[in-house]
Amino acid sequence: MTPAERRQPVNRLASSLANRRQILLGLGGLAGATLWPAWTTGQDATPAPAPMPPLVIPEIELVGTNDALIFPSAISAGINAITVRNESDTIMHTFAMRIPDGLTDDDAIAALMTEDTPDWFGHTLFAGNPDEPQPGGGELTGYVFYVPGHYMAVNPFSDGIATSFDVAGEPWGRPAPVADFEVGLIDMAFLGFDEPIPAGPHLWRLTNHGTTWHDLTTLKAPDGSTVDDLFAAFETTPEDQVFPDGYMTTGGVGATSPGVSTWVELNLEPGTHIAACFLPGEDGLPHAFNGMITAFEVV
Ligand SMILES: [Cu+2]
Asked: Would the pTM of this model clear 0.90, i.e. be above it?
């Protein structure tokens, strides 16, 4: 096979690029070691591969109202841009989980309703998603990677309203967005809040490096306040109020499984904030009560 003949499949693949998997599979079937120098030096008049077509990331809306959670019944696998809009009059807190093959929506709802959660619940996939947009139309946008399967999205703050959806197709090909910040979630702490965070809109990537589910809530707090101040304020907060007076949610991400990355654009104002994970652990307590909470400054 001449070098030109070897290049043909590569050029054809590059110019007809539908996703990266095609390229990877194509190169894997060729003599990569001899192919690479000829392909990169362009020693003859073979035209350069056509520019790659843009890889379009689907834009999907998740809308919460007082009595419904609205999401497409089917989306494509891979990275999706998710905008969560809160049209209810209270906090919207959502998560999406993959229901294991062979189980039904009813099985998933039963698992959510019982205190004695079944085994699968602890290791099914929680994909992470932008979370806690402001009531009355607030929006948060982020990026979520979905593997194929059947999912259920739940908003526990509106009487457990849920909707299920299917994810199908090839999850390869759409590149992960480039984030401004990296935040790590571990058992039981956050990584990445040692330095002040610049104010304004920034894309955060959160990765769960732990062994159990985690999420992130950011709260605008009274300037100079500490985690202890927040805990003290909770003690006098009425039961029907989610956060104490003076503390306002400024967005975060919903439940995220170990090994999963999820992205959210947060737009924080200067001042003291709190980052916390309120997901329950095996002891039934929110992780925040076991140390997964920190104050940080936005400047
Ligand atoms: Cu946690």
From this structure: no
CB proximity list for 69: less than 8 A, separation 6 or greater: 62, 63, 94, 153, 154, 155, 158, 161, 162, 163
34 pLDDT band, cuts 50/70/90, is very low
In the CATH hierarchy, which top-level class contains the domain 59-298? mainly beta
> Ligand 1 centre and the CA of 189: distance in Å?
8
Cα of 74 from ligand 1 centre, angstroms: 29
User: Could you list which residues have their CB under 5 Å from ion ligand 1?
Assistant: 214, 277, 279, 287, 292
Give yes or no for residue 106 having a pLDDT over 80. Answer: yes
Provide CATH 2.60.40.420 ranges for the chain: 59-298
- Ligand 1 centre distance from Cα of residue 3 (Å): 54
Euclidean distance between CA atoms 212 and 216, whole angstroms: 14
Residues with Cβ < 8 Å from 275, sequence gap 6 or more?
183, 190, 193, 216, 217, 218, 219, 252, 293, 294, 295, 296
In whole angstroms, give the CA distance from residue 122 to residue 62. Answer: 24
Q: How far is the CA of 291 from the centre of ligand 1 (A)?
A: 9
Tell me how far the alpha carbon of residue 129 lies from the centroid of ligand 1, in angstroms: 15
- The pLDDT of residue 288: 97
> What pLDDT shows up at residue 54?
63
Q: Which of 47-61, 101-115, 247-261 has the least mean pLDDT?
A: 47-61
Write out the H or E segment, with its range, that includes residue 149: strand 149-155
